[in-house]
Design brief:
mainly beta, about 230 residues
Amino acid sequence: MTISQDAALGTTNRLFGPGGPVLQPEGGHRAAMDLTRLAPQTGTAFILRAGQRLTVVDPTGEQVSDFFAVMDEDHDEWLSSGRTIDYANSTAVTTGSVLYSNRSRPMATVLEDTCGHHDLLLTPCSQQTFDLLYPEFEGAYHPSCFENLATNMARFGVDPDRISTTLNIFMNVWAERDGELHIDPPTSRAGDRFVLRAEADLVVGLTACSAEKSNNGVCKPIDYRVDD
């Protein structure tokens, strides 16, 4: 993976780092556009009912948003990148793609995609990500998508161990023929959107990604909206 130079691998028991979890501040609703804004390096969680649509907007360009979901009726059924890739025979996610659960049930369908580059391969960044892959931080606490997903989804009874590989909306990941992965700046431009429809009642976690190198060096906000 080319997001950083090799780091000496170590182990840690930290889930969130010594700074503790980061909560999305209240008051982020943007009434003029009927959007809610996630501040940089934060996240949220909410119930998305079957038939409702979630619109995720990159308001400034080149910003990733991590998406994860579990079934509201049973948190042991969760978004499976593996099943989704298997059934599409593709790692690409775009208009018409179906997101499947670990039990092979459809969870959501992509209705609109104005960007075209998203990732289903990489896990949400965590404290361990920064400890292992960002040696320049020297093990210091850093906000992460895993932290923000776990903290916010816990309000709905979702255990951190249920959070698996995310759909990384707007993330630009590609592979060499030998399998080496590259993370390039997102191709999303200001106003690009990604719209999906829930096929079942879901608990959804959503972030404004915290990893600088996934967002062309600067962490920026993400906007979203839920429609019936």
